Amino acid sequence: MKDLPHIPCLRQGVPYVSLNQNDVTDYQKHEPLATVSQVNAGVVKRDLRKTGEARAALKKFTVDQLIDISAKAGENFLNGTLPLGDQGHTQTPDEYVATLSSTSGLPYVMVRRNMAKIHHALTNMRTILTGLTRGLDLGIIDQGFGEQFGTRISFFPTTEALGLIMPSNSPAVNSLWLPSIALKIPVIIKPGREEPWTPYRLIQSFIEAGCPKEAFGFYPTDHEGSGAILQQCGRALIFGDKNTTDQYANNPGIQIHGPGFSKILIGEDQIEHWQDHIDLIASSIAENGGRSCINASAVVVPRYGKEIADALGKVLGPLKPSAVDDEGARLSGFANPKMAEYIDGTIEDDLKTPGAEDVTGRYRDGDRKIESNGGTYLRPTVVYCESIDHPLYNREFLCPYASVVEVPQSEMLNSIGPSLVVSAITKDPEFTEDLLSSSLIERLNLGPITTMKVSWDQPHEGNMFEFLYKRRSIERA
Amino acid sequence: MSDLSVSQDAMNQASEQLDARVREIVQWHFSPETGSPFWLDWAKKAGWDPAKEVQSFADLIAKFPHFQDEWLRDLQPEVWVPNAFKGQPFNIFETGGTTGMPKQRIGWNDYKVDYSEFSDKISDEHFPKNDYWLMMGPTGPRRLRLAIEHLANVRDCSCYFIDLDPRFVKKVIKNKQFDVARSYMDHVVDQAVTIFKNRKVSALFTTPKLLEALSERIDLWKAGLRGVFCGGTTMDPQYVRFLTEEVLEGKIGFYPTYGNTLMGLAASVPLQPEDNFSITYYSPQPRAVLRVVDPKNTTEVRGYNEWGRVELTTLTKEFFMPRFLERDEAIRRAPRAPYAWDGVAEVRPFGAMEKKIVEGVY
User: Fold this and answer.
1) pLDDT tens-digit profile of B26-40?
2) Chain A contact for B272, CB < 8 A?
3) Strand ranges (DSSP E) for A191-346?
4) Which domains does chain B have, with CATH numbers?
5) Residue A234 sits in which domain range?
6) Which residues of A touch B242 (CB under 8 A)?
């Protein structure tokens, strides 16, 4: 056994060792933690012509059986010691936490929270599928047709494989593709360059739980390889910033997971009680290191904008980095310090446009970007904007960041833009009706609910079942 | 492991042959009766007489500066005509030219010499005699187009041609018009598919990317293809492995080459398991010499198995080009039978590790 684990490409579950290998390194100690085989786009393209074989392997199971396998996979993922690569190495849950932390910058506590989310998704797959399919008899997916709700129903798959271009900075997003296996659609995963750990561990969890290995393609590859996955899979998910995801905005076969621009709105009827909601707003901004698309990145209020911004600054401004194994850690380090530099520079540049103030600066002892514990961190930033026209309104950064702006309630829905989550603190029936009618909001929380709350039985960002299956009309003699 | 070592005697003999060639060619280009206006004029301005002072390849390296590619862009072609060839119409071959004036090299017979020699290095099993070839690649003003047809003819074959304009491809990729590039590539490959479906073709010259694209459209073996002669863009070992194992399925002969209009053709040695798919090319010495030099001190060659910049010297009666720094980098490799001189391996654009280079499909 070599000292360093080597993570191979998986071609329908079969390890393939490439002659091109990249190191994945500890971002603080700069030491390699594993080598990862990198394959050229041609390898991906050739395998994508054979996805029918992978799907055939999954079709041998019923959805019910795959739900059970998913549950076992969840336990394996959370508690199991699993193979890590092809050199005989294994990985315990604690090793997974430490390794992922050392390449992503996430403190242990956040990695564990992400682990718990993935475990929850896997062990509650039946609930999730019920939500995604709106209570469909899952046997209908096995048969291809059936009767339910007093009518004949038939669904057919829209693809033979789901392509996934994964990010490096948020392991919990892997939970999005998990239903695909239970729905009998193989996955073709291009892991993030610094985050092979979570998808590889998930694949091993599934295989150990009895899932056919053919269902998994794991292709660390380059830009051209990613392009092949997006073009050839028929259905694919891509995660990235706005520049990346804009390229695919008009492609119905590609589901885009970019910035969420999630928000907190306070209605006229509740604004006098704004002080009651400061902790909820602060946690919506800063939980999970402020890295999720469901973190609030704007707070829109009819009045007291300056006061609310100041109160949030008081709570969030003093937050500092702590040791990665500190259970109370609130901030994530940047595996790529240039990213922190870029974000810090962007915020500073935009603050030069009149009409905005970084109110956290009043309560922060020092700069936003700091070096601590061998890593680079961005401390929380709340910016009061005088108008929605300021460039720092409706921005999202990979750190705890939010703008606070005053907008009359009657104009709020015209000013929010597409928002993944909106938590609207209001009891006003008219405003509630307007919110319910808005096509800009993917998930709506009515009342003082954190934007971070997700319901597994209600998809908040695209419906994986509707993405992977289509209903057809059917008649049978 | 087969014995591919080269004896010291063989290396000495190659070195002596090269020195003799240098004397002959320098004498030729710097003598008023046979030399070209460019070099005769150059010698006058330089204030020394290469015909007398250059007696070996070492002298050439020590005394000549690097050949400037602007000379091939800025000057009219007739300045390169050796007096011995005066009055004989010549071919004008081009390289580069994605933007602005391309480099031009004139010639008469050199390409035939290079490719007739190359014919002896490819097997009848992979390139059957009296059959048909297809060239899918840059034709136009390139030496390659005539060279491939000559090679096919030398082997009693005829050749179909499908053009690819690499200047257009590079331009659209540089402009991020990836859809246009893809569509153009599809257009080129479509034509090849049509030929394969309607004609019997056993040998193919193409670029690695086009070969890969063609293999996505047809079963190359079933289509009758037996040998591929490939060149043009970077092929790292993993890519070579992919092409040989998966695209050509280990059944179709694969002959990677490194070359250009200025040099001719450097053939690769057949891959051995210990090569781990790293291809080494050997120049057609003594007509051309490739060195891998230290980019910061180009008089020094790099050690074996070290990366450096590729330097080319061309030594024919038609064309003399001392110490031209290619826009490529490579690993210097030791002599290997049947070649008793250094080779260059894993050629890629110079600075490829530091910056993104537009290579396109060529």
Assistant:
1) 999 999 999 999 999
2) no
3) 216-218, 234-239, 254-257, 262-266, 296-301, 333-334
4) 8-349 (3.40.50.12780)
5) 6-258+463-472
6) 40, 42-43
